[in-house]
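Protocol step 4 of 6: structure prediction from sequence.
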Amino acid sequence: MSLWRMIWQEIAHRKMNFVLGLFSVVVAIGTLAGVVTLLKMDKLRAEESASNLEHTSKTLAETSKSFEETSNKLEFSQKQWEYSRKALEQSAVELEDEMRKITKGLGFNILILSQEEDLQAIKRAGGAPQKTITED
């Protein structure tokens, strides 16, 4: 009797045991294949996540650098604006003082005289006019 014939006779004699044994082997191989596939997928996802994390980290670093540069420019602009504002305020104060001096000099020296009034007589009298101007 050959080996293969004995194996077939044993399978025919214990059909249920053979089916259950074969089923358990198929389940074990399927489970092994599934686990290996899941591990490969997990490895790929981990590599992809690491790549995304690296890209996000680089983008964040660039954004942070850009934000820092913008912040420095803004700070410089604020300092320039403050300096310009102070210079403008100082110029406004100086202009106001000059205008005050000019208007004081102009506004209180005006003397309206009639055509008949003698300018030399007014100077001799101390600046007071002798005649009045009519409303016509």
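Step 5 (inspection) to follow. The chain has one domain: 3-105.
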